[in-house]
């Protein structure tokens, strides 16, 4: 079984993915979405957590064999970076959303030396803005960012375009299409909902799928 499907099944089994085509979620950006992914629930489910963290570690080894440090995004990526780094025997740190207003006023926590090869660990990517901000902060600190490992990506064109413009590679364990397919196969959602989900994914600003 592929990693994409294995991780999709793991997320669905703990109800980390919520589907509400008839009563959409509103993101902080104002986008209305028929699906919401809460990967924080992985941390409280040991069996599924083991699957996901091992998959992150395996992906780092396969896709970024030169990696020297893992850096988690704040806050959702921190625990995943820490566990994967423990599996790999690698150092890790994390990047704050903004610099602290006290103490050393760090934005990057943990030891990071200029020239070190870094992989960013993120829980999910939608439009890509926040993770690219983390990549930029690491690059400004002198790190060589090899790329990103994310647990889930929506595959939105805006996010893909932003990642390409920032010249940063992202490898996700699973994705919107896989989760929608597995959810339909297992009866988690109706087959008729897939078209609505994909219409949202292809153009989030088009809300004609709501109530359709």
Helix content: 40-55%
Strand content: 15-25%
Q: How would you sum up the global shape?
A: globular
Sheet having the most strands: 6 strands, mixed
Please tell me the overall pLDDT.
91
Helix-strand makeup class: alpha/beta
- Counted by DSSP, the helix tally is 7
Instruction: Tell me the number of strands.
Output: 10
What is the H/E order?
HEEEEHEHEEEHEHEHH
Low-confidence stretches: none
Précis, in short:
The chain has 212 residues and is α/β, with parallel strands linked by helices. The protein has helices at residues 3-13, 46-63, 76-88, 129-140, 157-165, 176-185, 191-202; strands spanning 17-19, 25-26, 32-33, 35-37, 69-73, 92-95, 108-109, 117-125, 144-153, 170-175.
What is the element layout, followed by pairings?
Elements: H1 3-13, E1 17-19, E2 25-26, E3 32-33, E4 35-37, H2 46-63, E5 69-73, H3 76-88, E6 92-95, E7 108-109, E8 117-125, H4 129-140, E9 144-153, H5 157-165, E10 170-175, H6 176-185, H7 191-202
Parallel strand pairs: 5-6, 5-8, 8-9, 9-10
Antiparallel strand pairs: 1-4, 2-3, 6-7
Helix pairs in contact: 1-2, 1-6, 2-3, 6-7
């Amino acid at each position: 079984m592929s990693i994409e499907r294995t991780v999709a099944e793991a997320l669905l089994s703990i109800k980390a993915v919520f589907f509400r085509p008839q009563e959409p979620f509103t993101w902080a950006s104002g986008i209305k979405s028929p699906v919401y992914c809460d990967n924080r629930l992985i941390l409280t489910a040991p069996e599924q957590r083991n699957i996901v963290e091992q998959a992150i570690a395996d992906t780092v080894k396969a896709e970024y064999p030169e990696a020297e440090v893992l850096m988690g995004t704040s806050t959702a990526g921190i625990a995943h970076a820490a566990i994967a780094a423990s599996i790999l025997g690698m150092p890790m740190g994390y990047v704050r959303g903004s610099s602290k207003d006290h103490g050393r006023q760090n934005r990057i926590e943990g030891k990071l030396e200029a020239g070190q090869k870094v992989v960013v660990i993120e829980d999910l990517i939608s439009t890509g803005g926040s993770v690219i901000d983390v990549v930029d902060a690491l690059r400004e600190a002198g790190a060589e960012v090899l790329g990103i490992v994310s647990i889930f990506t929506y595959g939105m064109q805006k996010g893909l375009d932003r990642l390409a413009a920032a010249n940063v590679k992202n490898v996700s364990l699973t994705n919107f299409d896989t989760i929608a397919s597995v959810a339909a196969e297992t009866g988690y959602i109706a087959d008729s909902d897939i078209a609505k989900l994909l219409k949202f994914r292809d153009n989030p600003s088009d809300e004609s799928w709501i109530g359709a």
